[in-house]
Specification:
mainly beta, SH3 type barrels, endopeptidase fold (from Nostoc punctiforme), six-stranded antiparallel β-sheet, 41% strand
Length: 261
């Protein structure tokens, strides 16, 4: 039987090899369950819920899978946690998109469980969005200015496909981690870029290899993470026109099977 563990820190980096000077290939958020495939000294080779594999240091996980009946997905960009034992002196910041167990809540605060049998309080969150194009765009725009980080998948830093994956995950929609796998998603339907609506996915390629993804905002506007999460245009003459991207579009896909509007 395989061993399971949960991510115990706000964000955990996952590496290509079991050492800190190796490439960070992705990240995981608190409470994500991972499968331990093998271990080497204080490193664990894991498989994430999306099937992605890599190496994680022992500091970032707890091998204690707890069961909770009620969970919520955090929709604020950053969420401060006050620890119930000493709220004034120790705080932690959680990322947008983190799924946490709810112990109690009122109009102002939610009491949540943290790994290691600790509880804390966070501000009340906006209701989880419906699966609509307008909600997707609202969530994406709430993260404008978030810096680009290779392998990043949190409000502290994204890469392009990590940004897309976490926005969709927050809405309860599953998609693969990397651009090359995302385009193979069965529920995506290919369309022309001219027909794209807000929330549809536009993929870009260099030398025939897909290497970038953006959400369409309609009418040639896109929101994506390149340097930072920002809005640009693929229409020449528009403010924020990105010439390279306009010449590099390779596929556009509708997400109509998963959203309304």
């Amino acid at each position: 039987m395989s061993r399971k563990a949960v991510i115990s820190t706000a964000v955990a980096s996952i590496y290509r090899e079991p050492r800190f000077n190796s490439e960070i290939v992705t990240q995981a958020l608190m409470w994500e369950i991972v499968e331990i495939l093998e271990e080497e000294k204080l490193w664990f080779h894991i498989r994430q819920e999306d099937g992605y594999q890599g190496w994680i240091y022992i500091f970032y996980i707890i091998e204690d899978i707890q069961s909770f009946p009620h969970w919520t997905t955090l929709t604020d960009r950053f969420i401060p946690v006050s620890f119930s034992k000493d709220e004034g002196s120790k705080r932690r910041m959680l990322s947008f998109g983190t799924k946490v167990p709810v112990i109690d809540k009122n109009a102002q605060f939610i009491t949540i469980a943290l790994p290691g049998e600790i509880s804390g309080k966070i501000p009340a969150q906006k209701p989880c969005p419906e699966n609509s194009r307008s909600d997707l765009v609202y969530l994406a725009k709430s993260l404008l200015g978030t810096p680009y980080i290779w392998g990043g998948k949190s409000a502290f830093g994204f890469d392009c496909s990590g940004f897309v994956q976490l926005i969709l995950s927050t809405m309860g929609i599953s998609i693969a981690r990397d651009t090359g796998m995302q385009v193979k998603t069965a529920w995506l339907s290919e369309i022309s870029v001219a027909d794209s609506k807000p929330g549809d996915l536009i993929y870009f390629a260099e030398n025939g290899k897909i290497n970038h993804v953006a959400f369409s905002l309609g009418e040639g506007k896109i929101i994506h993470c390149s340097g930072e999460v920002k809005i640009e245009s693929i229409n020449e003459g528009d403010v924020g026109f990105n010439q390279w991207l306009s010449q590099s579009i390779i596929n556009t896909y509708s997400i109509a099977d998963k959203v309304v509007g």
